[in-house]
Amino acid sequence: MGRAKEYRQRLKYQVASARKKILESLLAVRFADELGMSETEARLLGYRTGRWILNQPGVRGPNQIIFNAVEGRESFSRRHKSFKKIRLTPYDVEDLDLELEFGLSTMQAGRILRLVEEAYRQDALLSAKQLTVLCNITPTSLRGRMVALRREGIWVPVAGLSRTERQRGGQLRSARALARYLDGQPQADIRRMFALSRETFRHILSRFAYVARLALGGGFVPREPEEAAWLAIVQATPEKKLLPLLDEPGVPAPATDWASFRTELEADLPCPRSSSGLYGISPPKYWTPYLQAGPTAMLCIGR
């Protein structure tokens, strides 16, 4: 008898292969091998450290580029006068995850939104022409996908956006997805609608739980437009709807300086190892020397 055919076997292989090569996976392997960490702790620390490294101003990941964009997130005029260099991620392992789970159309929508959001966070805007080049799609296809996204109430700011579209407005993708989630819609439908992989949506929920906990305690000051949108959701949502999220361990936004990031790690990971000495969380002495050495040692581990 012949072997049963596996659907999308090549794409599954590409996803698994790409995940093995990203920075957080390389860090997790080195943490487990050199520091004696368990697989769970190594993956968690690799994820947190990888995100911190790639968020540093002077660091550019292997799948990132430096690109000229229109300076100012309110610079919608077609006559661009000032530009600035920003860091973009044209291709990411999330693209393969979305294509594997939802198909090519959802993957392309997620790539468009990621590029637009990355520029927006850096106080810049990309033009439609730049997006067609970065996403390798035709202007007609780009226009159709952006119309569909705006129809769902998503704010997709690009340079040259008409006054009518600006007046219509919308919400950032994460805020729109969280609003649907709190209304009780199925998570799979939300992720398909807003082109979010499982990992990305889980990260959004963790960060939102952290913001909600601080906002309900009072005194929370948002540091970026996304957090301001989340704060508005917390204020407009009954507390009983937020309770399931408040029970989750929230994750703060990645710290930019090493001292703050080190403090976060020391607070989250100083757990004792199990009595057998073989499983569970390894003691802090395995990774504390790397924290004391500073970011250079952490960067060297991922080489």
Give me the number of helical elements: 16
N- and C-termini, Cα separation: 46 Å
Major sheet details: 3 strands, antiparallel
SS-derived structural category: mainly alpha
Mean pLDDT: 81
Strand content: under 5%
* Total number of strands: 3
Biggest sheet, spatial arrangement of strands: 2-1-3
The string of secondary-structure elements, in order, is HHHEEHHEHHHHHHHHHHH
Oligomer: single chain
Approximately how much helix is present in the residues? 55-70%
Topology:
Elements: H1 9-21, H2 23-35, H3 39-54, E1 65-71, E2 83-88, H4 93-102, H5 104-121, E3 124-125, H6 128-135, H7 139-151, H8 163-168, H9 173-182, H10 187-194, H11 198-217, H12 225-236, H13 239-246, H14 258-268, H15 288-293, H16 295-301
Antiparallel strand pairs: 1-2, 1-3
Helix pairs in contact: 1-4, 2-3, 4-5, 9-10, 9-12, 11-12
Word description of this protein:
The chain has 303 residues and is mainly alpha-helical. The chain folds into three domains: 1-55 and 257-303, no CATH class; 62-170, no CATH class; 171-253. Helix content is 59%, strand content 5%. The chain has helices spanning 9-21, 23-35, 39-54, 93-102, 104-121, 128-135, 139-151, 163-168, 173-182, 187-194, 198-217, 225-236, 239-246, 258-268, 288-293, 295-301; strands at residues 65-71, 83-88, 124-125. It is globular, with a radius of gyration of 21 Å. The termini are far apart.
